[in-house]
Design a protein that fits this description.
Its EC number is 2.7.13.3. It is an enzyme of class 2 (transferase). One of its GO terms (molecular function) is phosphoprotein phosphatase activity. The chain has helices spanning 3-53, 57-67, 76-97, 140-145, 158-165, 167-227, 232-263, 276-293, 312-328, 359-362, 386-396; strands spanning 105-110, 116-118, 130-136, 149-156, 271-274, 296-301, 307-310, 334-342, 345-352, 400-406, 410-418. The chain has 422 residues and is α+β, with helices and mostly antiparallel strands.
């Protein structure tokens, strides 16, 4: 599984997890809303029973429709219709007073169905989502007809009503989840777009540097042939040309090497080995250079062996890069290398007395092609690849690189590698 599939998998699982958590919260919210509704309906039923317990305008009108008296000189159908609307308004007022504002209907009846009064907007009683709250009335009406009277409140699809009560929680949560998904998708698209740009750039640079190797080799060969017949004056010029050709070859090889590492085209095999001899040889070679070029270099290798998992060639190149930088960026170089075991790690520190690097620039110094700004003039020529290469090598060795530097006070770079034990 590649990283892209892993990221997409994590995104999908995270989004599904968010929806599952949101669904569980929604279920809990609906259950709490139902409990709260049942409590409110209980209070409303008490109020309705109290209103219908005594004789008042409503119960008197309902009694006339039950007993068929001609007190109002109206037809019985008109009395029933008036009672139905009057009772509906009464119940609605009690429900609203207890915080229930949703559609409802009711049915008032006796068990023998002799008396029956229905709401003006009766709901379909065959609907499975119909919720009923029956109550047994007491007082004036049951005593008048001498029969138990039941008033049944009916509500349709209460879940929709509960969801409307939870809109303050559900809608913001859904909006935030959608926003998170869109942001993550945008970030992933930007990441892969930038990655494709970097890959394309690396491929171009690698192809371009490959093309440069042929003319550089030809120039080197030509200068070598010219040296055989050159005069002493020409030798000086040819020597300078050969030095520049060698310098160009090193830059080309470094660009190719770093490109291969980043694109993983080159096999990078770590082998368990003692790197003490490698460090010793690198220090001795650099010490010889110091004597020839007349600058100061000291080294101290504490211990007898450093067993690590390493790729010898690249680790040696990384150390050489730091030593070369220490020499190049110092007026009168004073360089010291110290290697020692600290706990379960090998630490290699290289200290110089160079120009130093500001804290702001240190945040970018390990980026590819980055060079510390110095106006339009760089006293030391280069392409900003050395420390980027070292940083990549340390990542491959599961180690780390740290820098401690102050402007005009020098720089200390430490490489830390995990030690291997039997």
């Amino acid at each position: 599984m590649n990283k892209r599939q892993l990221y997409i998998g994590v995104l999908v699982i995270s989004v599904l997890g968010l929806f599952i958590v949101q669904y569980q919260y929604l279920r809990i919210g609906l259950n709490l809303a139902k409990v709260q509704f049942d409590r409110k309906i209980a209070y409303a039923i008490e109020d309705i029973r109290a209103d219908l317990y005594v004789e008042n305008q409503l119960t008197f009108l309902m009694a006339q429709s039950f007993t068929h008296d001609d007190y109002f000189r109206l037809s019985n159908d008109s009395l029933i219709d008036a009672s139905s609307h009057f009772l509906y308004d009464y119940i609605k007022n009690d429900l609203v007073s207890n915080g229930i504002e949703t559609d409802f209907s009711y049915r008032l009846y006796t068990r023998d169905s002799v008396i029956s009064l229905e709401a003006p907007n009766m709901l379909d009683e065959n609907n499975d989502q119909l919720v009923r709250y029956p109550m047994l009335l007491e007082g004036f009406l049951p005593e008048l007809v001498e029969k138990p009277i039941i008033l049944e409140l009916q509500f349709h699809d209460l879940n929709t009503y509960f969801l409307s009560q939870l809109n303050g929680l559900t809608l913001p949560s859904l909006i935030f989840i959608i926003a998170i998904i869109l942001v993550i998708i945008w970030i992933l698209r930007s990441f892969y777009w930038q990655r494709n740009v970097i890959t394309t750039t690396n491929d171009f640079i690698n192809n371009f540097t490959h093309e440069l190797k042929t003319p550089v080799f030809s120039i080197g060969l030509a200068t070598k042939l010219l040296e055989e017949r050159a005069t002493p004056e020409q030798h000086t010029v040819l020597k300078m040309m050969r030095e520049q050709v060698e310098r160009m070859k090193k830059h080309i090889d470094k660009v190719l090497e770093l490109g291969n590492l980043e694109s993983r085209k080159k096999l990078f095999e770590l082998e368990e080995q003692d790197v003490y001899p490698l460090l010793k040889k690198s220090c001795e070679d650099f010490e010889t250079m110091a004597r020839v070029e007349n600058f100061q270099f000291t080294y101290e290798l504490k211990g007898a062996e450093y067993i690590v998992k390493a790729e010898k060639f690249h680790l040696e190149n990384a150390i050489s890069n730091i030593l070369d930088n220490a020499k190049k960026y110092s007026e009168a170089p004073e360089i010291a290398l110290r290697a020692e075991k600290i706990g379960k790690h090998l630490q290699i520190c290289i200290k110089d007395n160079g120009m130093g690097i500001s804290a702001k620039q240190q945040q970018h110094i390990f980026k590819k092609f980055y060079r510390v700004p110095n106006g339009n003039l760089h006293r030391v020529k280069g392409y900003g690849l050395g420390l980027s290469y070292v940083s990549e090598i340390m990542k491959r060795h599961k180690g780390r690189i740290e820098m401690d530097s102050f402007e005009n006070q020098g720089t200390t770079i430490c490489l830390t590698l995990p030690l291997r034990y039997e």
